[in-house]
């Protein structure tokens, strides 16, 4: 069994490799060439533990992921991914699920920007400067010609550390701290929300026309990042899987209140496979809750690249 820690994974796969992996996952999803049950979700007080199994013709595996929103000295989201050899059933790899989740979720935002951002998009704003937000910015900058970055966090003390980490990856792009979420939205062509908030983090204001909003954070029914004004004025919302309709408050609440109908939710796999073309004259919204298929193909991609360059540690199992 090959063990791949954070350093191995970051050496093995660039963010561009992860974006290609999630695009591949969208094609597999559209072709329905996989098996995946709904994630099992358990709670520990106000925290979450999720089990996410999946298999395809080439690989099988599962991710165990925890979400502890109040963590201060550790990432909010942590986990491990186990890969199983589809030929003989052996456990062939154990991967650090914390960094893998961050990379593949960042890649989801990057893929959304690649297909949904207009060619004129030059600025990106991030609300929520945690571990996940770092890879969102890295991925968007990899696919768009970004000239300015804007950051906002309810706890502003976290921003200087975030900027130091970001500058290790992003060179020669000015990074600004927005005074308010409204200030960030006004100045950004692409807006990313990466929080676990139970109340909208975007302002109730007429500020979103022709912009791209990427919602990454809310993954449970009580969590919500999008405001009513944005939702009531949408033509459609792109979602990363059908399961998202049953998982995120950013979808469940608009459905319950009649702000959106089920017909307005479009699987993003149809954009990747060119069955649906986005309307760049409208506000575009992409909502992700993630799914095990992304983890499986991302893990398989990292594993294959690690084997090629001889990264990782072989363990007896």
UniProtKB/TrEMBL annotation:
SUPFAM superfamilies: NAD(P)-binding Rossmann-fold domains (SSF51735)
GO cellular component, one term: cytoplasm
Cited InterPro entries: NAD(P)-bd_dom_sf, ODC_Mu_crystall, ODC_N
PANTHER family recorded: KETIMINE REDUCTASE MU-CRYSTALLIN
Name of protein: Ornithine cyclodeaminase
Organism expressing this protein natively: Weizmannia acidilactici
